[in-house]
Amino acid sequence: QLQLQESGPGLVKPSETLSLTCTVSGGSISSSGYYWGWIRQPPGKGLEWIGSIYYTGNTFYNPSLKSRVTISVDTSKIQFSLKLTSVTAADTAVYYCARRDGSGSSLDYWGQGTLVTVSS
Amino acid sequence: QSALTQPPSASGSPGQSVTISCTGTSSDVGYYNYVSWYQQHPGKAPKLMIYAVTERPSGVPDRFSGSKSGNTASLTVSGLQAEDEADYYCSSYAGSYNLVFGGGTKLTVL
Description:
Number of helices of chain A: 0
Oligomer: heterodimer
Helix content of chain B: under 10%
Number of strands of chain B: 9
C-alpha cells in the first residue's frame, strides 16, 4: 500500500522560506504516468493546488504561486520536496503531499498533512 | 484560474439522496472530463471518491456517483448514512497541468 508522509518545521518566520519533504513508501516514485504534488489548506478554508513534479524533474506550478515555489525530487531517497519563499501569514496552512494520476489528474494517495504556521 | 463554485452547505436525512454541484467554466469543467470529488472528515486528509467525472476508485461505495452537464459537475450521495457527513471538494483539470479546486461543501446528515 502506497504511503506518503510529510515532514518539516511547523513554524516559519515571515519573509523566510518554508521547506517540506514528502517521503514515499510502499511504491516507486519513478512510476510512469504519475506525478507527485503539493496541496495546501488554510485553517477552516478550502484546498489549493500548489504544484506537481514528474520523476524526470519536470515541474508544473499554480500560476498564482509560481514565482515563490520550487518543487524537486530525489528518486534515490524516494522523496520530493517543496520550497516556498517569502512567506507571510497567508501561507499558514496544512500542507499535503499527494500522488497525481497523470491521465486524469485525480489525487489518489495523500499524506496525512502537516500544519505550517507563519509567525514571528 | 478561478476556483470552482460549490454551495457552502448541503443536507439530507438518513436514507435520502443529496446532490452537490460544482460549477466551472468552458476552460476547465466544461472542456475536460477530468473532474474529481474528495471527501474530507475533520482533521483528516481528503479521500478520492470520484475521478474522471463518473469513475469510482476501488473501495468507494456505489452510493456515490458523479455526473457532468456543460460547465457543471455533480456528486450524488444516495442512501445517506451518518458517516457520509463530511466536507466535499471538487477539482478539475484546467489545462497546462493546472488543477483547480472548488471551495468545498459541508454535508450534514440530519
